Amino acid sequence: MNINFSFYVCVKGGNFLLLANINIINSPKQMFSFVTLFKPKGSRSKLLRKTTGRNYRIPLIGEEAPSFATESTEGTINFPFDYGSHWKIILSHPMDFTPVCSTELIELANLQNEFKNLGVKLLIVSTDPLETHKQWKKALEQIEYKQYPRHNIYFPIADDSNLSISKLYGMIHLESDNIRDVRGVFIIDPDNIIRAEFFYPQEVGRNMDELLRTVIALQTTDRNNVMTPANWTKGNDVLVPFPLKANMSVMNKESGEYYQLSWFLIFKKVINGSIK
After folding, report:
1. What SS3 state is found at 157?
2. Residues 49-88: pLDDT tens digits?
């Protein structure tokens, strides 16, 4: 037995917009499917925006983050000028009210104070219009997820309904639907240089703890001229940049802060959370 649900959202002017048709399928292999929201290969019947020459380049690590101006749930944003000397994270979404993206924003809201303590400003970009963003934000603030208390969302959700930001950041390309690949994350330093970037498929939720870990690692390496090993977390020992032209026996005799696993693998101890 199959059951079909249609979801509509009320948009500006009192009109109703079909958000999704969902089929509940009585099958152990497929419990539900999106009919209107995502078609085969991720295409979507809602607001297919025709663009010409959709081969937009992704800005690379080490390059300056593209600037833009847009409206958001927190007012007009002029990026990066409104963010001063803060670290910044741009987290993009193909549309509002999708299940995966919704859990990501709830997880991000749960960590927003930790990002704030690191001097990080968060910016959500979604290709739906601003009025839909406001309704999505309101709905998310009422959800009790896992064991988290309900959180007010203090970070802005930016209007990218004209796809201008998605194009600037290379998230539209020829071989896919216009918006299915708007799933990028860009970590940007106080000098507005892209320091890390991640792209995720629409079916896989992003790990907000990993974004937090990456910011902490970048700030640690910047302050101390070190590197972080695989699976590093705050408080773990760090790596000495390679190659190291120094005498290890002298280094250990003077400070005892270093240890060597091989000629190419030298660690520096983190003692009581600090790197000397």
Report:
1. strand
2. 444 555 688 999 999 999 999 999 999 999 999 999 999 9
Residue type, 21: N
Q: Which of 175, 137, 132 is nearest to 19 (CA)?
A: 132
Report the candidate in 253, 240, 131, 119 with the shortest Cα–Cα distance to residue 187: 119
Tokens 């924003």 -> residue: 105
Q: Which residue in the list 101, 123, 157, 216 is annotated as catalytic?
A: 101
Domains of the chain and any CATH numbers: 2-37 (no CATH), 68-220 (3.40.30.10), 225-268 (no CATH)
Name which of 191, 190, 194, 137 is nearest 168 in CA terms: 194
- Token pair belonging to 260: 């060597």
| Stretch 208-223: mean pLDDT | 97
- For residue range 167-214, list pLDDT tens digits in order: 999 988 666 556 776 899 999 999 999 999 999 988 999 999 999 999
The two tokens of residue 156 are 């802005």
State how far the Cα of 255 lies from the Cα of 270, in Å rounded to an integer: 12
Determine the pLDDT at residue 190: 97
10 is known as an active-site residue: no
pTM attached to this predicted model: 0.78
Alpha helices in the chain (DSSP H): 99-117, 130-140, 164-168, 208-224, 248-255
d(CA 8, CA 20): 7
Q: Any idea how long the chain is? A: 276
Local confidence band at 48 (pLDDT 50, 70, 90 cut-offs): very low
